[in-house]
Specification:
Blueprint lengths: L4 H8 L3 H8 L10 H13 L6 H8 L4 E6 L5 H16 L3 E6 L6 H10 L5 E4 L5 H10 L3 E4 L8 E5 H14 L4 E7 L4 H12 L3 E7 L3 H13 L6 E4 L2 H13 L9 E6 L12 E4 L2 H18 L6 E5 L1 E3 L5
Parallel strand pairs: 1-2, 1-3, 3-4, 4-5, 5-11, 6-7, 6-8, 8-9, 9-10
Antiparallel strand pairs: 10-12
Helix pairs in contact: 1-2, 1-3, 5-12, 8-9, 10-11
């Protein structure tokens, strides 16, 4: 049976009101001496007291909980996104309720789950709400922020890939390279378009390959590139995770990176530092994006006023050893 404040009051010889003041660190007209405060805290520790989250939320009329709807964390990129969002929420005194979605068909049930937990706001990373949930959020004045996606008038934060892509092509052109490749995730547009524009503006020849996000298919494409006598001098890959597969495929065919072919990832994951060789990458500014999303979410929750429009954060090149 769980310990209650009544048990602590009886153990420490004070009223339940005094226990509540001490445990919640509340300002009160009740004068609580240092000796009484220590006695109450000691009684709580002796009785292994754990406050009820639901009870405290009911008493306050708030849950102090934000929701995060994100892609599955088996991908290191989204694992890092989740970790940063959790850390930033905790800094501002909020819990984070996490719902992971691998397929679009899972968005609806996971949104439902977050709302059942009475979150005070929702951050959607690389996903959009269904129309009925958009209407629900609007009618209940529950703030939502989108990261790396856009939907109607909801505030959004996205990466502008163009500055980072321009840096990458300038970097490779300065090394004397004249034919560069890009491996695109099927159906993706913004990164590929930024790559094409950067190459065309600089008069650099390019080739685009299409691939799925599956690591094994990226690995097979790496093998194919190794066998291609007319392969580009460097390939940029749609994600650091995809670049890992490409690197494995190249190594399996006996190619050395970067002397035989360079590889640049997109994303800026910390895992990229542990690749062999450490991965040159275009940083998505995901840490800044997560911190800004949490900061704005808390402001909206507390002020009851929303943001509008899309904020673009510039990508930037991180040079390591793979290109």
């Amino acid at each position: 049976m769980s310990t209650t404040i009544y048990d602590i009051a009886q153990r420490s010889g004070v009223t339940t009101a005094t226990v509540s003041v001490v445990l919640n660190n509340k300002k009160s007209r009740i004068g609580v001496s240092d000796a009484t405060r220590k006695r109450v805290l000691q009684a709580a520790e002796d009785l292994n007291y754990r406050p009820s989250f639901s009870a405290r939320s009911l008493a306050r009329g708030r849950t102090f909980t934000l929701g995060l709807l994100c892609r599955g964390i088996e991908n290191p990129h989204f694992a890092e996104v989740t970790a940063v969002t959790l850390r930033e929420a905790n800094k501002l005194g909020y819990h984070l309720s996490i719902a992971l979605v691998d397929y679009e068909s899972q968005v609806e049930p996971e949104m439902e789950l977050l709302l059942q937990r009475n979150v005070e706001g929702i951050i959607l990373w690389s996903h959009q709400p269904r129309e009925k949930y958009y209407q629900y959020l609007q009618s209940r004045r529950i703030p939502a922020i989108l990261c790396q996606s856009e939907y109607k008038d909801l505030p959004a934060i996205r990466c502008d890939w163009r500055p980072g892509m321009n840096e990458a092509i300038d970097f490779l052109k300065a090394k004397g390279q004249s034919r560069i490749g890009y491996i695109n995730q099927d159906g993706s547009f913004s990164k590929k378009q930024a790559f094409i524009e950067a190459c065309e503006q600089r008069g650099v020849a390019f080739v685009v390959f299409e691939c799925t996000e599956k690591t094994e298919e990226c690995r097979e494409l790496g093998r194919a590139l190794a066998r291609d006598l007319h392969r580009p001098e460097t390939v940029l890959v749609f994600s650091d995770y995809g670049a890992m597969g490409v690197l494995h495929g190249l190594h399996e065919q006996g190619l050395n990176v970067p002397s035989d072919i360079g590889v640049i990832g997109l994303g800026g994951t910390r895992l990229g530092e542990l690749f062999n060789p450490p991965l040159t990458t275009i940083d998505q500014a995901k840490d800044r994006m997560a911190a800004l999303a949490v900061e704005r979410m808390v402001e909206m929750v507390q002020s009851k006023q929303g943001y509008t429009g899309t904020t673009l954060l510039p990508a930037s090149l991180i040079v390591r050893n793979s290109a």
